[in-house]
Amino acid sequence: MYMLVHCSNCHTPLQLPPGANSICCAICHAITYIVDPRSAPPPPALSYSSSSQYQHYPPQPHPFQVVPSPFSHAPPGPPPAVHGPKRAVICAVSYKNTKNELKGCINDAMCMKYLLVNRFDFPESSIIMLTEEETDPYRRPTKSNMRLALSWLVQGCQPGDSLVFHFSGHGSQQKDYNGDELDGYDETLCPTDFETQGMIVDDEINAVIVKPLSHGVKLHAIIDACHSGTVLDLPFLCRMDRSGKYAWEDHRPRSGVWKGTSGGEVISFSGCDDDQTSADTSALSKITSTGVMTYSFIQAIERGHGTTYGSMLNAMRATIRKTTGELGGGIVTTLISMLLAGGNFSGGITQEPQLTASEPFDVYSKPFSL
């Protein structure tokens, strides 16, 4: 059972894994040490903070510091091999039997897994699926399980590794309190228990799966959620108009806090801009509900547009704009057609997928690959 403690510096609630005696805050990076109040005092060199139970060590300010994850344990049960060159976390949150219910998320997860295994040669044994269809309680998309899975994704990563994080569910925003957001709001992902346990904030996502990546490691995030444009808090956003002309926007915090990697590469496709919402619809497949962004991502690959990142982004946006056109497709699109229908959508789709990255690059010359 996890113990709830508060960061001794910024007081963010943290979940301490069993047996651990310290934890690193994903928000301010301070280390909180847990001591038994019945035990002898620590050595004189260690000073207590305002709480008699917690001690605080300020973080080192090096911009390329590898931040240890506070959730360094893999999910219980037999986990996939952590050192495989390709591995993925696929998370689908349907919020069943609630007012927040979504119809297409499980379809998104099934299709994404199929794509990774059959098109990009990801071993099934190296993919963690978190869905509400899972019977294993540790494979359900709760806040705790999502944190553990994200930590597993980057554990022991080595040069040449290719990692994927796919999320389909609700996203939201909340007021930014540490001054690292240009618009004043943090972006968030909503686990199935977000109403009681809270949302997962972009600061934490960045600290857990972006900052630790070393040279030669590549991570792709595919985020099908509202307000998801900068949900990985990456330093650069590709602002592209409808003609395909683009420029990289600098989203590095004015505070100077480093939001990039430790030498690795992270590229994120997200369902919409930070101020937009993402649709869950049957308007694209014509048969079953899917997330608009996930469907357009798969469709772009299946129709041969997965050559460069620029062609991918343009194709995804064109697919969404032409919702009334006939959508052909390949083997993955056929899989979507085989799934049970569910959900409805009315009205036009106005979202525009976004591309963010740890470093800017030429989107029309860099080959796309997972």
UniProtKB/TrEMBL annotation:
Source organism, top-level taxon: Eukaryota
GO biological process: proteolysis
GO cellular component term, pick one: cytoplasm
Domain Peptidase C14 caspase: 88-358
InterPro entries: Caspase-like_dom_sf, Metacaspase, Pept_C14_caspase, Znf_LSD1
Pfam families (UniProt xref): Peptidase_C14 (PF00656), zf-LSD1 (PF06943)
Signal sequence bounds: none
GO molecular function: cysteine-type endopeptidase activity
Domain Zinc finger LSD1-type: 7-31
Record NCBIfam families: LSD1
Family affiliation: Belongs to the peptidase C14B family.
Protein name per its UniProtKB record: Metacaspase-1-like
Species of origin: Populus alba x Populus x berolinensis
Lineage: Eukaryota, Viridiplantae, Streptophyta, Embryophyta, Tracheophyta
